[in-house]
Amino acid sequence: MKKILIVEDDKKIVAALTVRLKAEGYEAVAAFDAVMAGSVAAKERPDLVLLDISMPGGDGLLVAERLRKLPVPVNVPMIFLTASKKPGLRDQAMALGAAAFFEKPYEADQLLGAIKKALGES
Q1: 80, 93 in Cβ contact below 8 A?
Q2: Strand partners for 7
Q3: Domain count, the chain
């Protein structure tokens, strides 16, 4: 079973994503802020990371950089999610090697398609 780390400060979004991912046969684990993301990723060794950009403790772009630089790097596909309309975020995420980028609200089916593609399942 593939493991997906959800890094998101909104617990309702985490709960909804967890239910959807489990229904698709994935294991979901969560980190609720940028600081927690590194320790959860190092412990859980996810196959993919869903990463919110705006959250407490640092933005998702910094989290992505940190995950790649851990003592045992997390070199897995990362899909960025954001409610921000700040210009250039998509370009920044893609420069960090994003597998996909979604602005909230997003279509759950499109996100699942991007997850499957990033994991080589489609």
Answers
A1: yes
A2: 31, 51
A3: 1
